[in-house]
Amino acid sequence: ARTGVDLTETPIEMSFCRHAVEAKAPLLVADTHIDEIFVENPLVLGAPFVRSYVGVPLRLRTGEYLGALCLVDSRPNRFDESHVGELMKHAATVEDLLRLHATSVEAAELHARLETQNDTLAKANSLWAQAESLAKIGAWEIEIENAKPHWSQEVFSIYGLEYGEVPSIETGLGHYDPEHQDMVADVVTKAIEERGSYAFDADLIAADGTVKRVRSTGEYIDYDGDRPARLVGVIQDISDSYRNELALRHAANHDSLTGMLNRAAFDRALKQRIAEIEPDCDFCTLVLLDLDGFKDLNDTFGHLTGDAILVEIAERLGAAAPSRSIVARWGGDEFAVILPNYHIAGQARRTAERM
Question: Is 200 helix (H, G, I), strand (E, B) or coil?
C-alpha cells in the first residue's frame, strides 16, 4: 500500500525499510545526502529522490517482522522524533488489522471444515467463539429502553468472569480503572444521546485483578421495526500490542544498558529547558562528565566489567543529581546532566563538583 509515490516494490538492496526491519526498531534518517548508508542509494540519486525518511517496523502475531510503515520526503530534515511517535501509533493499527485479517482467514478455514460436517448452527457458534478467542475480541449489545446488556463469550473472558448471566451496566463500568470510568461513561452516554458512535482505549481490571488494556467501539442502531434501539459494539484486549508500543517508545528514548535517557531524548530535554528559563535566571547549567581511562579498563578487564561499571556509575550519578535534574548517557563513557536553574553560577558549580 502506498500514497503519494509510484513505487510499489524496490529491490532489497535499495530498501530503506529493510534497515528498520533488521534493527527491529524505528529508523529516522534526517538527510540521506550526509548519511553514509544511503548517500549512494539509487532511490536517493534518482526518482523519487529521497532526502528524509522515517519508518517503523511491522510485526505479525507470530512474532516475525514483515516490513515497515514509512514516510519519505524529497526535502531534508522533514521528520523528527515526534513523527516516530505518531507513526508508531499508526503502525500499531496496521498490525491490529493484519492480526484481525489473519484471524478472519483462520476463521474462514475453520468455517469451511465445519460446514462439511453438516452441523452448521452449533459449529458456527463454536467457530465464532474460536474466532473471538483468537482475536481477543468480544461482541456486546445494550438495549436502550431497558438498559439490558448482552455479551458474547469472549467479553466474559476479557472481564475474567465465568460465562453466564451478564452483569449490569454499572458493574461492567466498575471494572474499568477508576481514572477512566468517567470518560467511558461520558462517551457511551454521548453516543446514545447523539445517536452516534465512539471508540476509546482504556485500562480494565479483570475479576482476578489483572489490568488489561482494551479497545472498545460502539455504535447506536435505531429501531428498525423488528428490534428496539440499541448500542452495539466490540471490545478487544490489546494488552500485548499496547505493552509492545510502550516498550518501543521507551527504547527510542532510553539507553539500553543503563536505562538512562539517551542522547536524542536528552537533546530534546535541553532545548525545552533552555526555552523555559525564568526571566530572572539568565543561564542554564549543563554538566558533562566522562570517565578517564575507561578504554584501558575495558581493554584490561573486558567489556562485561566495563558495562557493570557504567551501570554503577549511572546509578550513583542519578542518586547524586539534585531533584528536577535531567541525567543521560551522552556517549560510550560520557554522561550529561541538566541541573535545575540556579540564580548564582557558583552554586551550580559547587553542585557539579559534589556530583
Answer: strand
pLDDT one-digit tens code per residue, 177-205:
999 999 999 999 999 899 999 889 999 99
Supply the pTM of this predicted model.
0.44
CA nearest neighbour of 175 among 235, 134, 131, 217: 235
Cell of 232: 452495539
Q: Please, what is the Cα angle at 261 between 258 and 264, to 5 degrees?
A: 130
Q: Residue 126: how many CB atoms within 10 A of its CB?
A: 13
Cα gap 197→191, rounded to integer Å: 5
Q: Three-state DSSP class for 15? A: coil
Q: What is the DSSP string of 8-33?
A: S---GGG-SHHHHHHHTS-EEES-GG
Residues whose CB is less than 8 angstroms from the CB of residue 264 and which lie 6 or more positions away in sequence, other chains included: 81, 252, 253
What are the cell numbers at 226? Answer: 423488528
- Among all chains, which residue has been given the C-alpha cell 461513561? 185
